[in-house]
Write a structure and sequence with these properties.
Keywords: Hydrolase, Protease, Thiol protease, Ubl conjugation pathway. This protein is an alpha+beta fold and 349 residues long. Helix content is 24%, strand content 23%. It folds into two domains: 2-9 and 35-155 and 241-296, Cathepsin B, Chain A; 157-227, ubp-family deubiquitinating enzyme superfamily (ubp-family deubiquitinating enzyme fold, Single Sheet). A hairpin with a 2-residue loop joins strand 11 and strand 12.
Length: 349
């Protein structure tokens, strides 16, 4: 599963919150009372449909696309060769068409633009596709301005790895750019517990001793990871379910192995209503159903869930999620949190 967590600033760029709250997008969104647009399964494309549904309901990215921010500056706009332009058009269609069903034909026909090894009609992994989409769109931004990427501004952060010698106290610090974090939820009961374990101090001893350049020998040392810069939307791959989190979107894999099965998504709209988006079938849902999934992918926004009787499709039995086997989570920092680069889940450097 993958968790996306809002903070309040993008270093040097417009903030994700500014983009999410922009009042006058160039493309007029369909009424908030409308359910999400269903996406046709064009042959093993459930993984693609589920990712597109969640990206379409990621507020800063959605509003950035609705304002044509990328395509208006992209030299490849209109050529069909830019992954971000393709995603922008897809998100605009999903949020502006007042239909019940659409087909993601254009993105599917250009799937190799996002990843050369993806093939039309073949089953693929949803999380892997999400990462390829993020990376491809980030690289497309750098072709316009090598110093600025709205994708990195939304999803990117910095992780510091520090090793401290227990003999002389010398420290070695390494900083890495990150787009996601992988957490193991084995024997934990919450995302917070898994995060604390991920950032727990590790003692390097025995056969795993650290070579200290200052001591010029192998020594016992302490290693610890910390978030140096928190992403505006933190993507966390979760290996097992953990229903104690505020959500705004989920991707569920239903099947007995990672190599086969079916993907579908749950998303929450601007009015707080939950929907199950199973390709072209979109039906009303609720928070209880989302967290009852055996394994799920999440997007986090607020604490409350609303109900409605609106539906534009019939939810198939597979949406019950009792045989689900993998997941992705996206979280959003609630408005009451203080600090620009901090989140309750993240140990900050």
């Amino acid at each position: 599963m993958v968790v996306l967590v809002y903070v309040y600033s993008i270093n040097g760029d417009k903030s994700a919150d500014d983009l999410a709250k922009k009042p006058t997008p160039k493309k007029k969104k369909k009424p908030n009372t409308s359910p999400p647009l269903g996406l046709k399964n064009l042959g093993n494309t459930c993984y693609l449909n589920s990712v597109l549904q969640c990206l379409s309901y990621t507020p800063p990215l959605a509003n950035y696309c609705l304002n044509n921010h990328h395509s208006s500056h992209c030299p490849q706009s209109g050529t069909g060769n830019c992954p971000f332009c393709l995603l922008e058009k897809r998100i605009i269609r999903s949020l502006t068409l007042d239909f019940s069903i659409d087909a993601p034909s254009k993105i599917l026909s250009c799937i190799n633009i996002f990843s050369p090894h993806f093939r039309y009609g073949r089953q693929e992994d949803a999380h892997e596709f999400l990462r390829f989409v993020i990376d491809a769109c980030h690289n497309a931004c750098l072709k316009i301005n090598k110093n600025t990427s709205i994708v990195r501004g939304i999803f990117g952060g910095k992780l510091r790895s520090q090793v401290k010698c227990c003999d002389c106290g010398a420290e070695s610090n390494k900083t890495d750019d990150i787009m996601d974090i992988s957490l193991d939820l084995f024997q934990v009961t919450s995302v917070k517990d898994a995060m604390q374990r991920y950032f727990q101090q590790e003692v390097l001893n025995g056969t795993n001793k650290y070579h200290c350049d200052n001591c010029e020998k192998l020594v016992v040392a302490k290693k610890q990871l910390a978030i140096l810069k928190a992403p505006n939307v933190l993507v966390i791959q979760l290996k097992d379910p953990c229903p104690q989190y505020n959500l705004y979107g989920t991707i569920v894999h239903s099947g007995y192995s990672p190599d086969s099965g079916h993907y579908y998504a749950y998303i929450k709209d601007a009015m707080g209503r939950w929907y199950c988006c199973n390709d072209s079938f979109v039906s009303i849902s609720n928070l209880q159903e989302v967290v009852s999934e055996k394994e799920w992918n999440l997007r986090d926004c607020n604490d409350h869930d609303a109900s409605s009787s609106v539906t534009n499709g019939v939810k198939p039995p597979s949406c019950n999620g009792h045989d689900a086997s993998s997941s992705v989570t996206n979280g959003v920092k609630p408005p009451h949190c203080n600090g620009h680069d901090r989140h309750p889940l993240l140990p900050m450097a």
